[in-house]
Design a protein that fits this description.
Layout (H helix, E strand, L loop, with lengths): L2 H4 L19 H20 L3 H28 L1 H9 L3 H4 L2 H12 L4 H28 L13 H5 L4 H8 L2 H28 L16 H14 L4 H18 L2 H5 L11 H17 L4 H29 L9
Helix pairs in contact: 2-3, 2-6, 2-14, 2-15, 3-4, 3-6, 6-7, 7-9, 9-10, 9-11, 10-11, 11-12, 11-14, 12-14, 14-15
GO molecular function: monoatomic cation efflux transmembrane transporter activity
Membrane topology: Multi-pass membrane protein
Keywords: Membrane, Transmembrane, Transmembrane helix
Length: 328
């Protein structure tokens, strides 16, 4: 149909590409986290390495596919991408593009040349996202306290992921630089987010799954700190056990989350669960034959089951054309 005749813009037509959500990259974070968890669990529990290796190829190809689709959206519908940049919540999910690649680079650590190039591209890109998004917080007047939600952790706290592969690819000070940014902003944002949750209206239903993001910063900080320092010391234990407490706290509200209608935001369950699973596998590797072995195996099973369910629900939503729709 001729848009000049109808008066519709391309984004107002039935072209679903215009409404392809950047939040779908959060599925890459969950799948990459699952991949890393299986790769780490294989030697600990004598599991087939092929599972993790197969997942690694799958998530890498899936990431390339999503990146191609989103790039096509940027070329064809730049105004829609600008709207996501201007949105007080969606802007934070832009960083899932680079975080996804950072996590994939970790899964490829056994192939250093591949991992290094992925890490370099993702680290530079994520630093630019961090600067841009923090500037938007500082220089825009449209933010309100009700806009704050755990997704705000994504762009800045994502810096904590950089050292996990970074210690293998660059000078240690570069990794400490990114770790410091993420850790300090975690404390700042955690205060803001808890204030918003305690004293203001509840999160909208479709953002309820983002509460699980609260688990990710301390869990990833634990993994990253071990990569940087190598010591399971008091500070590392504080990070791990706080992440474990948050996991138990949110797990105690499982029925509340089950009642939330499915949306792409449900992928927010996946990466935080992957983070605490990987963190527990790290402790298990250092304390074999202990309670941590059982906990790590349990978490790996739950994580795998949840991602299978999320994948199924997402494919079902795609089949019924329930995603890539304009918001009303």
């Amino acid at each position: 149909m001729n848009h000049a005749i109808t008066g519709d813009t391309p984004a107002q037509s039935n072209d679903r590409l215009a409404y392809f959500p950047v939040a779908l990259f959060s599925s890459i974070m969950g799948l990459a986290g699952l991949t890393i968890a299986w790769l780490k669990a294989a030697p600990i529990f004598a599991l087939p390495a092929e599972i993790g290796l197969g997942l690694r190829w799958f998530v890498t190809i899936f990431y390339a596919f999503l990146l191609l689709v989103y790039t096509s959206k940027l070329v064809r519908f730049p105004e829609e991408v600008k709207k996501e940049w201007a949105h007080p919540v969606k802007i934070n999910f832009m960083a899932t593009i680079t975080i996804g690649l950072l996590l994939i680079s970790i899964s490829w650590l056994s192939v250093p040349a591949v991992s290094q190039w992925m890490w370099i591209i993702a680290t530079i890109g994520h630093f630019l996202f961090t600067i841009t998004i923090i500037n938007s917080w500082l220089n825009k007047s449209h933010y309100q306290i009700t806009h704050a939600n755990p997704a705000w952790f994504i762009p800045v706290v994502g810096n904590i992921i950089v050292p996990i592969a970074g210690v293998h690819h660059a000078h240690a000070d570069i990794s400490w630089f990114f770790f410091s940014i993420g850790l300090v902003f975690w404390v700042v944002l955690m205060t803001i987010i808890f204030y918003r949750i305690f004293f203001h209206d509840p999160l909208p239903a479709k953002l309820t799954p983002t509460l699980f993001i609260l688990i990710a910063p301390p869990a990833i900080a634990f993994i990253s700190y071990l990569a940087l320092d190598g010591q399971l010391n008091a500070f590392a234990r504080v990070l791990y056990f706080f992440a474990l407490f948050l996991t138990l706290l949110l797990g105690s509200n499982a029925m509340r989350f089950f009642r939330v209608p499915f949306a792409i935001s449900a992928w927010a369950y996946s990466f935080p669960l992957a983070a605490i699973t990987i963190a527990t596998l790290e402790i298990s590797a250092r304390n074999p034959g202990t309670f941590y072995d059982t906990l790590a195996a349990l978490l790996l099973g739950i994580l795998s089951l949840i991602i299978l369910l999320l994948g199924y629900r997402t494919l079902l939503a795609v089949k019924h054309k329930q995603i890539c729709l304009p918001e009303h």
